Amino acid sequence: xxxxxxxxxxxxxxxxxxxxxxxxxxxxxxxxxxxxxxxxxxxxxxxxxxxxxxxxxxxxxxxxxxxxxxxxxxxxxxxxxxxxxxxxxxxxxxxxxxxxxxxxxxxxxxxxxxxxxxx
Length: 119
Ligand code: 5GP
Ligand code: ZN
What we know:
This protein starts with a helix and ends in a 15-residue tail after the last strand. The longest helix has 17 residues, at about 60-75. By secondary structure, the chain is an alpha+beta fold. It is built from two helices and five strands. A five-stranded antiparallel β-sheet has the order 1-2-3-5-4, covered by helices on one side. It has a single domain (about 5-105), classed as 2-Layer Sandwich (HIT family, subunit A). The protein binds guanosine-5'-monophosphate and zinc ion. Zinc ion (ZN) binds near residues 1, 4, 6, 7 and 46.
């Protein structure tokens, strides 16, 4: 999608600090980390949110479930991580390209997600 921020990151039109890439997925640092490790995992295929799953995209989104722990291990989060998927306005989603937030060392996090905060 030409007007999608994360599609522009996938295309390389906007720079990002990549930590993982394959044919289907990209993972990169959040520009404003809310925890000591804060990675965004996205599918290269544009899917707006969990409310936009259909037969054409559900498998790639399901694949994110196993990709998330791979990324967490890559980031050496061996004692665990938090995955967050904000969905729609009511879920606090700001970028309309589905993404998993992968957060590590969450005891030092500045964002719990409950309630939404500016930081
Ligand atoms: P959402 O609120 O949609 O769940 O999360 C969007 C996330 O994208 C936010 O945590 C925000 O900091 C991050 N973000 C917004 N713009 C950019 C950007 O240009 N580059 C990167 N790496 N992250 C971004
Ligand atoms: Zn997109």
